[in-house]
Amino acid sequence: MTHDVEKPAPVFEAPWHAQVFALTVHLNETGVFAWSDWAAAFGDTLRQHGTSKSLNGGEDYFVAWLETLERVLQDRALVDAAALARMRGAWEQAYLATPHGAPVKL
To answer: What whole-number distance in Å separates Cα of residue 72 and Cα of residue 37?
Structure first.
């Protein structure tokens, strides 16, 4: 006799959501920033985004999360704006050149 077991819904809508979350937790745990500093910066970003649209905890939420992480790393001089712009451009080109459903690789 088999039992139908429902698979739990994924916690994250997309793999990159989980990855940016895990990276942020790792950076906190390794002392790059205090969680209270992160929470304050993320709260600022959410307030900025919330004035133009509501955030639902999905894609828009994690876009704000990534924006905050980039800003926090720039504020700590761990990455510069030009390097971020180059990386975004490289990811965009890779994304546009990747067949639908295939993983994006740089």
So the answer is: 9
Query: Which residue reads 């959410």 in tokens?
Result: 46
Task: Give 8-59 pLDDT, tens digit per residue.
Answer: 776 788 888 999 999 999 999 999 999 999 999 999 998 888 766 666 667 8
Contact of 41 with 71, CB cutoff 8 Å = yes
Domain boundaries, the chain: 35-97
Q: Which tokens belong to 65? A: 């999360």
| Cβ neighbours, 10 Å, residue 42 | 19
Residue 104 to residue 4: CA distance in whole angstroms: 34
Tokens of 92: 């965009």
Task: Give the percent of the chain with pLDDT over 70.
Answer: 89
